[in-house]
């Protein structure tokens, strides 16, 4: 499964967290503005776009250093702190989203994972995140014995072929025996299917055109229902 947007979500919201940190540093932005800027920044500073700007040989490569630099650029874009504030603002937000208490599970996650375990599935997370995902999983999902495939540790982000190949080789399964459930059509459905995986598309509060795509489900529970029937 994917992690953010599929299994976990920020709590409080990203806009709320950014607003609180900004206000602590004298930056007064409303949540609507923060949300709009954040969505723009996530696109403008995707790993592919960020690494292209940096002149990387392969824009889908990543590591912990790249993730820190990329998120620093995102924070600066969203909150526009004064130069002397930038590092303090960034560090506060970076640390905030590394705390397990800054996240929560979607309500349907634990029951769905328990059903999969009882049905004999081996569970894992395949996520474009960094090392901060580990304490979150440890707090909320330790009992499910998830295998973690984190892009900054693998060295490649979804949708890179190398990410799925690494995961397949580590699991020692045939590609057709692996299923990815996630909320990103390209990363969690199109790309893994291209490399022989199965995939289900999770559309939590999605747009109508998203819900009309093949193998689309509004909740993780509904996706698991389809998988187990």
Overview of this protein structure:
The protein is mostly helical and 229 residues long. It has two domains: 12-101, Haloacid dehalogenase-like hydrolase (DNA polymerase, domain 1, Orthogonal Bundle); 103-228, Rossmann fold. It has twelve helices and seven strands. A three-stranded parallel sheet has the order 5-6-7. Strand 5 (179-182), helix 10 and strand 6 form a beta-alpha-beta unit. Helix 1 packs across helix 2, helix 1 (14-24) packs antiparallel against helix 5 (86-96) and helix 2 (31-44) runs antiparallel to helix 4.
Beta-strand proportion = 5-15%
Extract low-pLDDT stretches.
none
Based on Cα principal axes, name the global outline.
globular
Share of helix, binned? 40-55%
Q: If classified by CATH, what would the architecture of the largest domain be? A: 3-Layer(aba) Sandwich
How many separate helices?
A: 12
Compute the number of strand runs: 7
User: What do we call the CATH homologous superfamily of the largest domain?
Assistant: HAD superfamily/HAD-like
Q: How far apart, in Å, are the first and last alpha carbons?
A: 19 Å
**Class computed from helices, strands and strand pairing:** mainly alpha
- What is the mean pLDDT? 95
- Say what the CATH topology of the largest domain is: Rossmann fold
Q: What's the domain count?
A: 2
Largest sheet: 3 strands, parallel
Q: Topology as H/E string? A: EHHHHHEHEHEHHEHEHEH
CATH class bucket of the largest domain: Alpha Beta
Short summary of the structure?
By secondary structure, the protein is mainly alpha-helical. Helix content is 51%, strand content 11%.
């Amino acid at each position: 499964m994917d992690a953010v947007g599929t299994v976990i979500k920020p709590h409080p919201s990203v806009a709320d967290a950014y607003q609180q940190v900004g206000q602590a540093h004298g930056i007064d932005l409303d949540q609507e503005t923060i949300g709009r800027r954040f969505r723009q920044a996530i696109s403008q500073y995707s790993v592919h776009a960020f690494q292209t700007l940096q002149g990387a040989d392969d824009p889908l490569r990543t590591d912990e250093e790249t993730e820190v630099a990329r998120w620093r650029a995102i924070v600066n874009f969203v909150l526009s702190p004064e130069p002397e504030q930038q590092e303090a603002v960034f560090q506060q937000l970076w640390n905030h989203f590394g705390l397990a208490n800054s996240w929560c599970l979607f309500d349907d996650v634990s029951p769905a994972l328990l059903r999969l375990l009882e049905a004999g599935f081996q569970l894992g997370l395949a996520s474009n995140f960094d090392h901060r995902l580990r304490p979150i999983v440890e707090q909320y999902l330790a009992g499910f014995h998830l295998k973690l495939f984190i892009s900054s540790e693998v060295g490649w982000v979804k949708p890179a072929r190398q990410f799925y190949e690494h995961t397949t080789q580590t699991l020692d399964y045939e590609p057709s025996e692996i299923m990815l459930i996630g909320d990103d059509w390209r990363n969690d459905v199109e790309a893994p299917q291209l490399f022989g995986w199965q995939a289900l598309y999770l559309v939590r509060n999605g747009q109508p055109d998203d819900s009309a795509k093949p193998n689309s489900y509004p909740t993780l529970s509904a996706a698991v229902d389809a998988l187990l029937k």
